[in-house]
TrEMBL record:
Domain CBS: 173-230, 238-297
The organism's place on the tree of life at top rank: Bacteria
Lineage, uppermost ranks: Bacteria, Pseudomonadati, Bacteroidota, Saprospiria, Saprospirales
Name by which UniProt lists this protein: Nucleotidyltransferase
Membrane spanning residue stretches: none
UniProt keyword annotation of Phosphoprotein present: no
Length: 644
C-alpha cells in the first residue's frame, strides 16, 4: 500500500520554487526523505552563530521569524510563511547560521537532509541558482546576476526567440566609409556619392580623421537652390564638427544620438572621437532597414504629426514597443530613457499644435518667455505607461500692466495643451495639478514666492505639494526659468533646514509591510479594496527618500529616482551598498508595475496579492528590504523621532 504522506508532501512542494523546477520522479524521491517537524510558538529552530545543521527547512503551516541578535537586542529581519525556504545559507556558503529562527506560532516544517539535496543541486543547477540568487544574496546582487525580466515573467509570457530586439544589438559594419579630402569640389563629391549609392560623404584630413560631412540634404538646400556653385570646395558646404561614435555602439545608441542632435548620419571612428580614423558611417535609412518600429522613427513621426489622433496612435505603438522591451529583458534605465523621450516629444508637439491654434485665431502672443514643466513621474522620467497628467507653467516676469493679459494668454494656452494630452491618452489630473489651473500657471516671481512659502511654512499640504513640484523638469521653452527656480529652492533651503525634517517625516508616512504574506497592507475601502497599491506602498517611499537626500546634498538636475540613488552612492561611499540596492529595487518595482499595466491595460498601480506567484512574492518582498533601511537612515540623519 502506498504511503500517502510522501505523496502529500510532493503535492505541496511542487507548487513552490525551487521544487517546482524538479522533474516529477525526482521530486517524489525528495519527498520520501522529508522529515515533518512540529514547533510551538517561540520555540527556537536554530540559533545565530550555531554550526550548520543537517537540514534545510520549508514552512508547511504557521510562520517562522528570523532575527539578527546583538548583545542588547534582537532585530526582526524576515518572516517566513507557507512555502518559504529558510536555513539554507550554511549549505550554500558553508558558514554558521547568520540569523536565529523561531516559530512565530504553532508551526509545521518540512526538513530536507542537506546531503541528499546537494546531489539534486549538482544535477539541476537551476535549483542552486534560484536558492543562491533569492536567499544567499541581497536584492542588489540578485538583480545584477539574474535576468530582470525573469523576475516576474513566466516563460509563456515572454516573446519568442525570433522576436529580435535590434535596439540593443551591436551594429555590424558591412561597407567601407566613403570619404574625400577637403579640397574636393562639391561636384566631384556628388559624383562619388552617386557612384557609391550613399547619402553622405565624410571629409577627412590626411590622417583619415573626420573634419566634416556632406549629405544629400546639403546638396538640396545649398546647391540645388543656387546658394553654392558646384565648383566650390566641399569644405564650404560641409557640416562641422562631425558627430562621431565608436564602432562598438548599439542600434539604440545611434538612434538616441541622432534624435538628440537632430541629424540623419553618424560617423564611426576608431575611438569614437574626431581624433581617430574614420571606420564607417551610418544613416537613418540604415537603421530603418534593420528594423521597423523603433524609437527614432516614432519620434520623427511625432514631429510631423498635424492631428492629435495620429499622436494617440503613435503612443499606442510606443506601448507595444514598451511591451517588447519588458519581455526582452531590456534594462529599465534604457526603457525609461526611451519612453521619456517619446512622452516629451508628444508634449512638445501638443504645445506646438496649441500655439498654432492660438495664432490661427489671431490671438497675439504676449511676448513673455515661458517654460513648460513636467511634474511627478513624468518629471522624474519614470512614466512608462499613460498615467494622469502632472504639469505646470512658469512665465517670465512682466510689467504690472501686462500681467493680466500675459497670464490669461498662458492659461488659455495651457488649457489647450492639457486638452490635447488628454486626447492622446494622458488623462486629466484628478487633483488638477496642471498648468491649466491658475494656481500652477505663474510668473517666475510668483513661483519663487510659492516655493518660499512652502519651505518656510511646512504644513502637511505644503509638504505634499513639494513632493510633486520639487520633481519638476523643463520640457519646452526657456529653460533658464527652470534653472532659476532650482537655484531659488536651494537658496531658500540654506536658511530653513528644518523644512527637510518635515519632508523626512512625510517620507515615512507609508512604511512597507513586514512581509508579503501575513502583513500585506492593502486598501481597506473604495474602488481598490483588498488591493495592494504598489505606487504608494513601495515606489513612493523610495522616491521620497531619494528626493530628500539629493535636496540635502544640494544635487540638482537629477530627477530620476534610481539615478538619484546612483549619484548618492558616489557622494556617500559608506552607504553605497544601500543606495545601489535601493536603485535596483526601484527598477524592479517599475518593471513590475509596467508589466501589470500592460496585462490589465491600466496604470498598473493596483493589484490583488492573491494574483502573485510565489516567485513574484519573493522578489517583490526583497524590494522592501532597502526601503526599511533607508527609512532608518532618514530617521537618524534628520532626527525625525524628535519631531512631534
Amino acid at each position: 500500500m502506498e504511503n500517502i504522506i510522501p505523496r502529500r508532501i510532493y503535492d505541496f512542494l511542487k507548487a513552490y520554487p525551487p521544487f517546482s523546477l524538479l522533474p516529477d520522479d525526482l521530486l517524489l524521491k525528495v519527498s520520501q526523505r522529508v522529515l515533518v517537524q512540529y514547533y510551538q510558538p517561540r520555540q527556537e529552530i536554530f540559533h545565530q552563530g550555531d554550526q550548520p545543521g543537517t537540514h534545510i527547512f520549508i514552512v508547511r503551516e504557521g510562520a517562522v521569524q528570523l532575527y539578527r541578535e546583538t548583545e542588547s537586542e534582537a532585530f526582526l529581519v524576515e518572516q517566513c510563511d507557507e512555502g518559504d525556504v529558510f536555513g539554507i545559507r550554511p549549505m550554500l556558503a558553508e558558514e554558521t547560521y547568520a540569523l536565529t529562527a523561531r516559530a512565530a506560532e504553532e508551526t509545521l516544517l518540512y526538513a530536507i537532509n542537506i546531503e541528499g539535496f546537494r546531489e539534486v543541486m549538482e544535477a539541476h543547477p537551476q535549483v542552486a541558482f534560484y536558492l543562491a540568487s533569492n536567499y544567499a544574496a541581497g536584492v542588489g546582487q540578485k538583480y545584477k546576476t539574474a535576468n530582470p525580466s525573469q523576475l516576474f515573467l513566466d516563460r509563456s509570457d515572454r516573446t519568442t526567440d525570433n522576436f529580435a530586439l535590434m535596439e540593443v544589438q551591436s551594429l555590424e559594419r558591412s561597407k567601407l566609409p566613403v570619404t574625400c579630402p577637403p579640397e574636393t569640389t562639391i561636384q566631384e563629391a556628388a559624383l562619388i556619392m552617386s557612384a557609391e549609392e550613399v547619402g553622405s560623404i565624410i571629409v577627412v584630413n590626411p590622417s583619415g580623421q573626420p573634419v566634416g560631412i556632406m549629405t544629400d540634404k546639403d546638396l538640396r538646400h545649398k546647391v540645388a537652390t543656387g546658394k553654392m556653385e558646384l565648383t566650390a570646395s566641399i569644405s564650404d558646404i560641409m557640416s562641422s564638427p562631425v558627430i562621431t561614435m565608436p564602432p562598438t555602439v548599439t542600434v539604440a545608441d545611434v538612434q538616441m544620438e541622432m534624435v538628440k542632435n537632430r541629424i540623419n548620419h553618424i560617423c564611426l571612428t576608431e575611438d569614437g572621437t574626431t581624433d581617430s580614423r574614420v571606420v564607417g558611417a551610418l544613416s537613418e535609412h540604415d537603421l530603418m532597414v534593420m528594423q521597423g518600429n523603433n524609437p527614432a522613427i516614432l519620434i520623427r513621426e511625432i514631429r510631423r504629426c498635424k492631428a492629435v489622433e495620429a499622436l494617440r496612435d503613435i503612443r499606442d505603438r510606443a506601448e507595444q514597443l514598451l511591451k517588447k522591451y519588458i519581455f526582452q529583458e531590456v534594462s529599465i534605465a534604457f526603457i525609461s530613457t526611451v519612453m521619456t523621450e517619446i512622452n516629451d516629444e508628444i508634449i512638445v508637439r501638443c504645445i506646438e499644435l496649441a500655439e498654432a491654434d492660438l495664432a490661427s485665431e489671431g490671438q497675439q502672443h504676449p511676448g513673455a518667455k515661458y517654460c513648460w514643466l513636467a511634474l511627478g513621474s513624468e518629471g522624474r522620467g519614470e512614466q512608462l505607461l499613460r498615467t494622469d497628467q502632472d504639469n505646470a507653467l512658469v512665465f517670465e516676469d512682466v510689467p504690472e500692466d501686462a500681467y493680466e493679459r500675459t497670464k490669461n494668454y498662458y492659461l488659455d494656452f495651457a488649457g489647450r495643451v492639457t486638452h490635447l494630452l488628454n486626447e492622446v491618452g494622458f488623462e486629466y489630473c484628478p487633483a488638477d495639478m496642471m498648468a491649466s489651473n491658475p494656481s500652477w500657471c505663474l510668473s517666475l516671481s510668483e513661483w519663487k514666492q510659492q516655493f518660499s512659502t512652502w519651505i518656510h511654512k511646512p504644513e502637511p499640504k505644503a509638504v505634499m505639494f513639494c513632493t510633486i513640484f520639487f520633481d519638476f523638469r523643463p520640457i519646452h521653452g526657456d529653460r533658464s526659468l527652470s534653472s532659476a527656480l532650482t537655484t531659488h529652492i536651494f537658496e531658500a533651503l540654506d536658511d530653513q533646514e528644518i523644512f527637510l525634517v518635515y519632508l523626512g517625516k512625510n517620507a515615512l508616512q507609508n512604511p512597507p509591510p513586514l512581509t508579503f504574506f501575513r502583513n500585506f497592507v492593502v486598501e481597506s475601502s473604495g474602488a481598490h479594496k483588498d488591493e495592494f497599491d504598489i505606487k504608494a506602498r513601495a515606489m513612493m517611499p523610495l522616491a521620497d527618500a531619494a528626493r530628500l537626500l539629493v535636496l540635502h546634498a544640494r544635487v540638482g538636475m537629477i530627477n530620476n529616482t534610481f539615478r538619484r540613488f546612483e549619484r548618492l552612492a558616489e557622494l556617500e561611499p559608506q552607504n553605497r551598498e544601500l543606495y545601489e540596492q535601493a536603485a535596483d529595487a526601484y527598477e524592479i518595482l517599475m518593471r513590475y508595475r509596467a508589466l501589470q499595466g500592460l496585462k490589465k491595460q491600466n496604470s498598473g498601480r493596483y493589484f490583488n496579492p492573491s494574483d502573485l506567484t510565489k516567485m513574484e512574492r519573493i522578489n517583490l518582498r526583497n524590494c522592501f528590504r532597502p526601503i526599511k533601511e533607508l527609512q532608518s537612515l532618514l530617521n537618524t540623519r534628520f532626527r525625525l523621532a524628535l519631531l512631534s
